[in-house]
Design a protein that fits this description.
22% of the residues lie in helices and 28% in strands. By secondary structure, it is of the alpha+beta class. It has 2 domains: 4-57, no CATH class; 68-170, 3-layer Sandwich (Rieske Iron-sulfur Protein). The protein has a 6-stranded antiparallel β-sheet with strand order 1-10-9-4-3-2, with no helix packed on it. The protein has a 4-stranded antiparallel β-sheet with strand order 5-6-7-8, with no helix packed on it. The longest helix is centred in the first third of the chain and has 26 residues, at 32-57. Bound molecules: FE2/S2 (inorganic) cluster (FES). Residues 112, 114-115, 117, 130, 132-133, 135, 147-149 line the site of FE2/S2 (inorganic) cluster. The site of FE2/S2 (inorganic) cluster has 11 residues, from loops.
Amino acid sequence: MTDPETTRRAWPRLHWQREFPYQWNADEAISRRELLNFAVYSSGALFAATAVLAGLGFIPRSSSGPGVEIARAADVPEGQAVYFHYPTSTLGDEAMLLHHPNGQFAAYNQTCTHLSCGVFYQPDQKRVFCPCHEGVFNPETGEPVAGPPQRRLTRITLRQQDGMIYATGWEL
Ligand code: FES
């Protein structure tokens, strides 16, 4: 059998091969089996990493401390809303605290469950409204009542302590 290196040397060399000679002898050849092993193990590692991240997504985000301070209950008149950020001050974490006429409080993330526009409270119409496609949510439950949204708003759990209202996590 002819040595492959001898065969390669016998070929007429193209211009680029003369300019950029490849050192076949110095090359560590990778077998098909090694390549396949690498592909299988790296795919397995990617699958495992994705599974871990997906699992982390199901862990409810809640704080063990008192939570994030929103407002003093006395400073939010009945039928009014206070807008805040939760859990961080970044884009997408806009939230609203509603003080219902019955004295109860509720807080929601402001992201519409249809196509993620910002929703806001309209106390005079007793609704949470999304102007993008006229989605309407029940302010007491966060459930969609009109328009395209099919899922309720993400509700933030609250805790009151010494007259202060804190956001403590998400209601699943
Ligand atoms: S994004 Fe809110 S109704 Fe479409």
